[in-house]
Amino acid sequence: MPTLEIDGGKVDVADGLTVLQAAERAGIEIPHYCWHPGLTIAGNCRMCLVEIEKIPKLQIACNTRVADGMVVHTTSEKTKAAQRAVLEFLLINHPIDCPVCDQAGECKLQEYYMDYDRQRSRVPLPAKVRKKKAIPIGPLVMLDQERCILCARCTRFLDEVTHTSELAIYERGDHCEIELAPGRVLDNPYSGNVVDICPVGALTSRDFRFRARVWYLERAESVCGACANGCNIEIYHREDRIFRFQPRQNLAVNQYWMCDNGRLSYRDLQGEGRLMQPVVRGEDEFVGSTWASAIGQAAGRLADLARDGDPGAVGIVVSAQAPNEEVFLLRRLGATLDARMAGISWSPPGAFHDDFLVKADKNPNTSGLRLQGLGDAGAVDDLIRAAAAGELRALVLHRTDLTAWRDAAVVQAALERVPCLVVIDTDRREVAAYADVVLPLATYAECDGTFTNHAGRVQRFHTAVAPPAEARPGWAVLGELVARLGGGEPPASAAAAFDALAAECEAFRDLRYDALGAEGQPVAGA
Amino acid sequence: MAERLLLRCRDIPDLRRLDVYVAHGGYEATRKALTTCSPEQLIGIVKTSNLRGRGGAGFPTGLKWSFLPKQTAKPVYLAVNADESEPGTFKDRLIIEQDPHQLLEGIIISAYAIRCHTAYIYIRGEFALGAERFEAAIAEARQAGFLGKNVLGTGFDLDVWVHRGAGAYICGEETGLIESLEGKRGYPRIKPPFPATHGLFGCPTIVNNVETLACVPHIVLRGADWFRAIGPEKSPGPKLFCVSGHVVRPGTYELPMGTPLREIIYDHAGGIPGDRKLKGVIPGGASMPVFTADEIDVPMDMDSVQKAGSFLGSAGIMVMDETVCMVWTALVIARFFHHESCGQCTPCREGTGWLEKVLRRLEYGEGTATAADVDLLLNIAGNMMGTTICALSDAAAMPARAFVTKYRAEFEEHAALGRCPFRPIAEPSRRHAHA
User: Fold this and answer.
1) Domain that holds residue B386
2) Residues B273-289: pLDDT tens digits?
3) What is this model's ipTM?
4) CATH number, position B382
């Protein structure tokens, strides 16, 4: 294990690391553009040049391996002069159109200029090389060649990660430009990542651009719910609106990337169909209700019907859209009511998937359902048959769009025969038309909780935005329902609900909510 | 030197034909090397000869070969650098076109020494005749059993393939050449790793210049001691000098390494026409710092030229008389490097263009240049040097810096007058200019 000295401090690092990585571990940032941990080393931007004693020329920290006894200066006059020089070179042909550039606020040119350069320009504006601006190069990506610093992160991503090579560098010298290969469009399933890794405003998101200045946005750590992979994300939001998803590093799950479908799935979370307040069936129509009244009614009906019927007179269906905590509380509800439980994990047939990040299972918590014993795919069909046969006196549908996921006519006929239907969901589905009580839930962007991904990794998501109107987190709604039915004290938080799950469920036994960390933990045996 | 070796083609008509070449002792060196020497012995001989690379950097050839891994499961490649593109340089072209078998012998012997069975010759795209003649020479040699399976019955196999460049100076940089050979954009690679371990297709690779390899058969035939005795011991051998510009007899001269620059200009090349005064000489191709008229008493070998503040480089000697405007010359050179920068590294991509712009406004700017531009040139050049993956940035910065430093008054005069004080020179063709 080599020991080196960086800016006067001793650093012990693993052999084979680069000076840039060693400095990072020591909390010292060496500015860089082209280096990215998920890509090969290009060494072209020259921003990370540092002075290393006993080596006459400055060395690029991104491609210099550490050696025992190495002495590195990241703030010496020689290093600083090189940083200023590289920034000046980068800016001489840059359009400096920050006021109309969507990257402003998260632009490494802006940041490093302020941190390392701050010289006046020595190139008159008319002398700059002009290139093409605002070129749509794919459904998600807009290209501005003038702002490009030719770090080749995008081309390396497309060569090395997606192996699709839609973009390449054409021309030479200061006329170099990023351009689509002839006849190509940047439309691979991971195209949005090039926007994230572009350090400047050359590649911007057609979905996000001009919608908000990034410095007005707040961020919450979360997990993408668009499929079973559980890519780690950050939700950018402001005033309870979600503006974008961006991938968050997790080497065990998604490295640095996410798919375009997941990236755009934020739109589904704040759509037109959201349920806004609890409603109960009145004489002829649904009427808005308070939470106390709606939960009281649901609890009362369920308790009565369960008490008067045989064991199994109440059915509960929970989908793999539900977080672990909700599944757990529904199981507790089921035990209280002596109900028949069924889990359902439905995905559109033929949905896109690949061997990288996108899974065929479009549910974030199929593993969580299975680990809590609700993985039997036939159980739902048994329940529908039981309902159709008039054996069910009440049915709870939790985040379950049953008519869409099974034969609609069969489900409709079955639901007609159930005396009491309680629908708990985020969005209005067709089944709500048959409901007696509808309880509006928060999405995973609006509450805390956990999903268990396809590989059995339990990952936390954090509240980013407030639920719309009256909608509430599932753990709170279900906790109260269970409590009303005498099934135990409601959990005070998602954390409490998860820890209660861990205390009674074998697969989760070693996990504690507060110890899951930013990158999650695997369940026992995963 | 009375006897010409590298330029025997000047003395023997049709030497490029195999029958003529063999009739004049051709392929004897190959036979001797392959039948009496082991590869290790050959590397030893080349090391002892002190042969240094003729491409521009002057790296010891035997030492380069010895960097190859001793044990490797991968094939070893030899890439012959025939991308001769340094302005003022036209020596390799002569060998390829007029004496291809001499080069082919050098390739065969060197390939044998480094245990390589596939060699590529990367020929500058513009050398259409050279590529054609070299292909013909390969076909002849293969027919005669000097190439292919079981060369001369020794059990040694070697194939040589011609790869034509597409017009990029940067593909003469050894890793840019390797990338281009692989079918990629000619981007020099970051080092480490070095080509000797991770070169062509990720395999151990040696890249040698044409003239370097052409020296090898002579070393094999006449011995390392003979070679080392020609010129200075640390930088010996016969050397091709390309003389261009304001001389009576421009051309390629084969002279012993270390021949004084003054002798080359005034004796061999016949001096300056019209007895005009010498103003400056670029000793080693456009990328090397210029010498003033007072600095030409320098032996033309690698170490001596370096000691005198420039480099022997490709030995492209460009002679300028008193009629030449040094700002214009610096501009022409800057324009070349601006055009040829691959654009990979920031300082070179942006610096080459900036240098050209500042020089252009000094020369043609009609008063837009200022006295501060003279120091700006030095500042840009200084920021470009030693900060990039390959040497092109230095190649652009070094001459600019030398011209400004050595002819500063002329630059200042341009700025003060707001125009070029020399006779009006038509603006150079803008076909390749981007400014």
Assistant:
1) 326-417
2) 998 999 999 999 999 99
3) 0.92
4) 1.20.1440.230
